[in-house]
Amino acid sequence: MPTYIALLKWTPQGLQNVKQSPSRLDAARKGFEAAGVKWKDFYMVTGQYDMIAVVEAPDDVALAKAILSTSSKGSVTTETCRAFTEEEYRKIIGGLA
């Protein structure tokens, strides 16, 4: 399954209720899993983003549904990118002309 990195930021609403963030994370994880998206790792971080989630999804559509469902609740904004494993990276580079 493809791997994705979700870069998350709390919205003002999310920060106002930051103490509820762990329960929102649990609910998001369950929602992702129901959509067929597996959480591999989660980190709270410093810098430009507040949290990072590493997930695996069967395809872009499943990932988009899970991300939109979570972000539509108003506590976080997301920026998500496809991540390639080292093996995938080597195949991509090896296939260059």
Topology diagram in text:
Layout: E1 3-10, H1 12-16, H2 21-34, E2 38-44, E3 51-56, H3 60-71, E4 76-83, H4 86-94
List keywords for this structure.
4 strands; alpha+beta; elongated; single chain; 41% helix; 4-stranded antiparallel sheet; 4 helices; 97 residues
Give structural notes.
There is one protein chain. The protein is α+β, with helices and mostly antiparallel strands. It is built from four helices and four strands. It has a four-stranded antiparallel sheet. The protein is elongated and about 50 Å long.
> What gap, in angstroms, lies between the N and C termini?
26 Å
Helix run count: 4
Radius of gyration: 15 Å
Tell how many strands the DSSP assignment holds.
4
Model regions low in confidence, pLDDT < 50 over at least 5 residues:
none
Strand content: 25-35%
How helical, in percent, are the residues? 40-55%
In short:
With 97 residues, the chain is of the alpha+beta class. It is 41% helix and 30% strand.
